[in-house]
């Protein structure tokens, strides 16, 4: 099923890469360059999934996720971390903050779509 | 009795029988003997006949031979002619040849002897002789004639044989004649006789005769002058025998005879031979045998006879006895006291004895024949109904006592028993016995009544009555309601006195003996063991019971349990002894007096103190013992005592010789046998007073000492910093308290070789000095004494061996007489002394004073200790203050350093994080886009493009791996490596690794195997890292193996695992093996192109493994293969948790 996915990534190439794969899979991808933008979009759009990078300027992924959680109506919005932070503590920290998933960069192009697919929750039919 | 008579008859018959037997035996014997005799005689007779025949035959033969001879002669003569000369010669020869011929002659026809053995015969005419005539008349027959022998010969007879000679014309030509005597008998007879003897087994004499027909004895073997015994019966025609009587001797003989029969041509003379033997001789053998038989028979028969006689005698005796017993029985029956009634089988009375007559009232004569029922009338005692008589058919039947009604109406109580009278297997009648038991029954009743009374008495007595036999054995004990005493009736096997305790048995035995000898009742006390094993004292009075004849029969004992009484007695005695001993042992005086002040009792001490003897004291009154001045006082005391029960007084007791001894007397009123008396005890208090005073002094002193000690214990001066001041205080106090002139404190110096005076207080002057030194070598004894570490109470210091060292130098000059030294101990070691010196007369240091000195020494020690402690405390405080300053400094320095480190650490973390991120981000693009393009998601590719993109992708991935490795390495180096622990199956990791490498392996044609010993093995470790390590090693293995296989082995090792990667690759040279796990070393520089890698892999592996608590190693054989292995613990010990933290360096 096609989903509307918010991709929060500050690096252009990474954005391009992920978007290419997701759109190839039939999903709709909305971009956000940082946490602030992500929040705005999340407010306005009906999203099925948020893919969030952690290392970002201004507001990092953790902060954004936290804020997102607190926004009304978005409690069930699945947020998956896509990050090059590959330390063990990072994963746990992410999970604690409400990320439902955690994907390490560099992503595997073969499996990426399937991986994020499992987290999609269709809030609209 | 029938049986009796039959027995008698039998008895009578027997001898007759025996006699008859004997007669029969005799008769038979006689007959037998006779028969035998007859037989013997007959046989002898026959033998004799035989012998006679034999002899007859012999004679016959003789004649025959003679006849033959004659015939031969005739023939000879005839033949020879009638030559006279020759004939004579011939005849002579013949005669000499044949002794038997008396005469041989030959005649001519006219009868003239022409030849003859007797020359005188010649030419004698014989014509007229009988013989000639006979011979000439008869033909060839021989004429035999018995003639008288001329003079000789036996029996005077001879036999003539003549025969005529005839010629052919049968004319007598002459005659031949011979004459013989009868043959010599002995020869003839000898053989016969021998034969006879042997046949008849007898040596008896045979007598034979030849007898002519007319009875004339021709020859008699007896060789006596033969008589003509015409009485001799001539033999018969045949041989035979007979019994005759010898005419001459008149003895019976057996005669055998036989006729001399003659032969063919000789008729014989009719002679006979008689052979005789005495019958006695004939029977001699038999007699002999008979005697033998007789002897043997007697030997057999006589004993039998004897036996017979004996048994006959026995029988006779029995018979006599039977007769006697019969009469005896009758007598008995009549004489016994019990009534005996005998009946026959019909119940009719056959006998009534005297007693029965009395009982039944019938006379025997009247009762005989009557039915027993009528005579013996029994009634039941209770019901008075008539009773049936007991009829016993077999065995004795007894009945209980019943009433017998006699003829005259008298009633008696009787016991009856009936028994059958046996006879010949059957019953001859019945015997009924009645016993008059009237008197006995009455006696029994009376006895029972008296027994009851007896029992009643004994049961209600308080004593126990027993009966004993003369040996003391208890045969009866009364049943007693009130006494518990058991005097057991012992079994016969036990000793008679067994129930008595052993020690007392002899006492009792003696008592019994006295009883038996004197007959007087004896009183004995002894102990008895009861059934419950208690021992009780028994007092018994034994009396002798005599039989009517005066002989002692048994002993009656009346016994009582006196245990409690004895107990009481014993206790009283014990009490008395106790009280006596008590009084005797009283340390003081004891006396007792009555209201009249008369002395009743006193003890030994009283005698001693008052100086009076025992006998005198009994007469004296109390006031005597007290001095006049005390009399009133004493009297007052006594009054008080009598009135109020007790009083006491301190007074003096007046000894006989006037000495007074102070006593404290305490008096008590008591009631003895309803008389008032006063019990007084007094103790000598003269010594006490002195003691009291001494005590007061001592206690005062002690008080002072305690006060002083107490004060000093509290004295702050002794706890202050000024030790000198403390010492000075102490010496002053000690001196004052003890009352000594000088007190000083000394401490050991120079290795205890000297003591140094710290302070010396001189009482009189009140001055303190110090500094003196006393050396050991100057007073060695003193130092030795000190070394013992004890208080030295030198009462007489000048002569005391311990202190006399300085008598001259010190004591005398200063006037010191006594010294008291006490050791000062600090921490168990003696460090000095406190010394007290006394001037004036020598003083004996009391124990309390010594103790006080010791206490003062302790106080010195205490003060010293306190002071020392204070010093120590001060030093400690200073040191601590200094230390604190240093510590604060140090802390500050550390804190600064710490801050710096923290900052450094933070920077490192930041850097690493940033590096991690910065390096990965471009990689993401490279790998990602090449990945997309290779997947042809961005459009189709040609082969070349695919190939080239593949190479780029491959390189990108390689680069990422290198970056990761570098990051890991830098993290490890900076100690920032994190470890994420989880429990996982090592098998899963191996599987993942194998899956990852499978494409590469398959491409190279290598087998990729795994062998996991324990598939369920779980370890707790960092799974990702282990995967990384194993992947590295396995990857290397695949990389360096061109053919063969790569095998991963996992086995349990201890708590953890051992993982091995074994390949059949190129292997590693030994020189390179050593450097394998170092950084930046490549195995084979030359092969770098083929085998890629930065050389970080193994170094990183080693670091990781070490970090995870394991160890890594490798072995290899160049050209064969390699084995890489690492171990991992089951769980990593140490504080690790999932958050990122610093790992300890060097792990």
Question: Overview of this structure, please?
Answer:
The complex is a heterodimer of chains A (125) and B (1147). Chain A is α/β, with parallel strands linked by helices. Chain A is globular and about 30 Å long. In chain A, 39% of the residues lie in helices and 18% in strands. In chain A, strands 2-1-3-4-5 form a five-stranded parallel sheet, with helices on both faces. Chain A starts with a strand and ends in an 8-residue tail after the last helix. Chain B is an alpha+beta fold. Chain A binds chain B through residues 11, 13-14, 17, 20-21, 24, 55, 84-89, 92, 105-110, and chain B through 913, 916-917, 920-929, 931-932, 935, 937-938, 960, 978-980, 1024, 1138-1140.
- Through-space gap between termini of chain A: 10 Å
| pLDDT averaged over residues of chain A | 84
| % residues in beta strands of chain B | 25-35%
Radius of gyration of chain B: 88 Å
Lay out the secondary structure:
The complex is a heterodimer of chains A (125) and B (1147).
Chain A: E1 4-8, H1 12-24, E2 28-32, H2 35-44, E3 49-52, H3 61-70, E4 79-83, H4 88-97, E5 101-104, H5 112-117
Parallel strand pairs in A: 1-2, 1-3, 3-4, 4-5
Helix pairs in contact in A: 2-3
Chain B: H1 2-80, H2 84-97, E1 101-108, E2 113-116, H3 130-137, E3 143-148, E4 157-166, E5 172-181, H4 185-200, E6 207-211, E7 217-220, E8 240-245, E9 252-259, E10 272-278, H5 279-335, E11 339-344, E12 349-352, H6 354-360, H7 364-367, H8 372-375, E13 377-379, E14 386-387, E15 397-405, E16 411-423, E17 426-436, H9 438-459, E18 464-468, E19 474-477, H10 502-518, E20 522-529, E21 535-546, E22 552-561, H11 563-585, E23 589-594, E24 599-602, H12 604-610, H13 614-617, H14 628-644, E25 646-654, E26 660-672, E27 675-684, H15 686-714, H16 723-738, E28 742-749, E29 754-762, E30 767-769, E31 773-775, H17 780-787, E32 792-794, H18 807-814, E33 816-826, E34 829-839, H19 847-934, H20 943-973, E35 982-985, H21 986-1004, E36 1007-1012, E37 1018-1021, H22 1023-1040, E38 1045-1053, E39 1056-1063, H23 1070-1073, H24 1097-1107, E40 1111-1117, E41 1121-1128
Parallel strand pairs in B: 36-38
Antiparallel strand pairs in B: 1-2, 1-5, 3-4, 4-5, 6-7, 6-10, 8-9, 9-10, 11-12, 11-17, 13-14, 13-15, 15-16, 16-17, 18-19, 18-22, 20-21, 21-22, 23-24, 23-27, 25-26, 26-27, 28-29, 28-34, 29-30, 29-31, 32-33, 33-34, 35-37, 38-39, 39-41, 40-41
Helix pairs in contact in B: 1-4, 1-5, 15-16, 15-19, 16-19, 19-20, 20-24, 21-22, 22-24
